[in-house]
């Protein structure tokens, strides 16, 4: 089966009602035929549902599709993307371990590494995506895993996964990739040797700004450790959210292709606009890592970032002049969304931390939606004129 087909045709087992679309299994627990079956299921001698903190038919269906799309052996679903990142790292790391991560990380992931894990004796180092020679020198005997985002949020920095896959094999480390921005439609980190792939399903996987969700998929061995940790700490995804997200996967390919098409057209239309210092989009030939983007991504993604001339004041004026685009912190929605990272999603970072990851006062992130591209271009250009 091709990916599009799997995302539609992999379904929870049909009930005796012969439903076509999979129903919502809104139940916290499952009943047993008799005491012996209860014993056997708990002892894992017999397969079966027990309790929705462990598993649920809707959650299992979503995971089956995600494993298929990400070419992974097994998975676990969490209540949010951060739940997936914390639950996975929490399961795999112990006191004394060291994490090597790319410097451009999602704001809350940065808080995890810099403020939360150090409380439990877990240390970290940041490496720059643009300086591959740096990475190997930062590996210590305590280094357990490498954690990256590519493209990064909001800097759109890319990391060469083929190179990193070789490094992790050579140094016998685990490689974990937050694949939220690219989605499995644009790249599969497992092709390059990633052991674990993480998603905020809240973004493109839902794609309509409705529910939170997080996914971890990877090798059987790692997921077994993550499942044990998550079952006993309780960050499970609700069956309702899993049902919504599984339905959303049926259109993921279509939506992501259209997001990419609109984003490229917007980026091309804005290049050279006198109100802008720079337009960043991985599939624009002017993008510093254009060659790498072409090598490892099928399309450029749905995010364009704009460097507005005149810093924060000009960026604010641009945002306030938009007539259609929403001002919100989400991304990957059908609606075009603008975010000013320096004053919102990345405001908790120190000034020099923002500077190191390219988050300047004039940077605006545009999550290009699925409205007509003519309307999107019209809205953004009129708002830039007003600046
Ligand atoms: C949004 C996001 C997260 C966190 O996901 P939530 O579902 O909001 O918890 C993690 N990583 C990246 C790259 C994100 O964009």
From TrEMBL:
GO terms for molecular function: carbon-sulfur lyase activity; pyridoxal phosphate binding; transferase activity, transferring alkyl or aryl (other than methyl) groups. One of its GO terms (cellular component) is cytoplasm. GO terms for biological process: 'de novo' L-methionine biosynthetic process; homocysteine biosynthetic process; transsulfuration. It catalyses: O-succinyl-L-homoserine + hydrogen sulfide = L-homocysteine + succinate. It is an enzyme of class 2 (transferase). Coiled coil: none annotated. Its cofactor is pyridoxal 5'-phosphate. The keyword Repeat does not apply. Keywords: Amino-acid biosynthesis, Methionine biosynthesis, Pyridoxal phosphate, Transferase. Pathway: Amino-acid biosynthesis; L-methionine biosynthesis via de novo pathway; L-homocysteine from O-succinyl-L-homoserine: step 1/1. The keyword Amino-acid biosynthesis applies. Its EC number is 2.5.1.-. Signal peptide: none annotated. HAMAP family: MetZ. PANTHER family: CYSTATHIONINE GAMMA-LYASE, TRANS-SULFURATION ENZYME FAMILY MEMBER. Belongs to the trans-sulfuration enzymes family. MetZ subfamily. Homotetramer. Catalyzes the formation of L-homocysteine from O-succinyl-L-homoserine (OSHS) and hydrogen sulfide. This is O-succinylhomoserine sulfhydrylase. It comes from Pontibacter actiniarum.
